[in-house]
Amino acid sequence: MNKSDLVKALAKEMDLPMRKAEEIVDMVFKTMTDALVAGNRIEIRGFGSFVVKKYEGYTGRNPKTGEKITVGSKHLPFFKTGKELRENIND
For residues 5, 8, 12 and 18, what is the CA-based torsion angle, rounded to 10 degrees? Predict the structure, then answer.
């Protein structure tokens, strides 16, 4: 499922115009993005949680040339599934 599929499903389920459904989906994603950028954790009970993890820098290797390169530290989003979602998938 991609974003446009989600918009269509919301519009159909809630009997909304496509434009309104797209605004709602955009607002939810923007709010979640803003929360993660601010360093907050997002928890949706029964679905999962999103958190930003910090990864330290390391010395890597360019696979094409074999040259050693320094990879800087970075922050990446991480998703952990909730128990209910995990159980529903494995049923």
Answer: 170
Indicate whether 53 and 85 sit together in one domain: yes
Q: Give the Å distances, CA to CA, from 19 to 25, 26, 84.
A: 10, 11, 32
| Sign of the torsion angle spanned by Cα atoms 59, 61, 67, 73 | negative
- Give the tens place of pLDDT for each residue, 28-74: 999 999 999 999 999 999 999 999 999 999 999 999 999 999 999 99
Q: Are residues 66 and 33 in the same domain?
A: no
Q: What is the CATH number of the domain that holds 59?
A: 4.10.520.10
**Order of strands across the sheet with 74-81?**
42-44, 48-55, 74-81
> Residues 59, 21: one domain?
no
